[in-house]
Amino acid sequence: MITLKDAQIDCYYIVKKIKGEGPLKRRIMDMGITKNAEIFVRKVAPLGDPVQITVRGYELSLRKNDASCVEVELLEK
């Protein structure tokens, strides 16, 4: 299992687990990143922060710290 921080660009992933507790986990879930959500990794900034993704039809940028809390699995399309 890899985290969203380590995901490759131009690939689709399925969210398997959100690590963490309290406000951070709640904030990530409020953004639409929930278990079994499909995520497309669009870009990663040159220094690796932030990661730009598409989730539930909208664009979202996540800091590396937040992206490391989201465990994903590669989706074969």
What does this protein structure show overall?
The protein has 77 residues and is of the alpha+beta class. It has a single domain, classed as SH3 type barrels (Roll), CATH 2.30.30. It has two helices and six strands; from the N terminus they run E-E-H-E-E-E-H-E. The protein has helices spanning 22-30, 64-67, and strands at residues 2-3, 11-18, 38-44, 51-55, 58-62, 70-74. Strands 1-6-2-3-4-5 form a six-stranded antiparallel β-sheet. A hairpin with a 6-residue loop joins strand 3 (38-44) and strand 4. The longest helix is centred in the middle third of the chain and has 9 residues, at 22-30. The protein is globular, with a radius of gyration of 11 Å. It starts with a strand and ends with a strand. The model has no long low-confidence stretch (mean pLDDT 92).
Q: What fold name goes in the CATH topology slot?
A: SH3 type barrels
User: Which regions contain 5 or more consecutive residues with pLDDT less than 50?
Assistant: none
Give me the Rg, rounded.
11 Å
Kindly report the name of the CATH homologous superfamily: Ferrous iron transport protein A (FeoA)
* Percentage beta strand: 35-45%
CATH architecture: Roll
CATH class: Mainly Beta
State the end-to-end distance.
18 Å
Number of domains: 1
Please give the count of helices: 2
Q: What number is the mean pLDDT?
A: 92
Order of helices and strands: EEHEEEHE
Percent range of helical residues: 10-25%
Question: What best-fitting shape do the alpha-carbon axes yield?
Answer: globular
Number of strands: 6
- The structure class reads alpha+beta
**Order of strands across the widest beta sheet?**
1-6-2-3-4-5
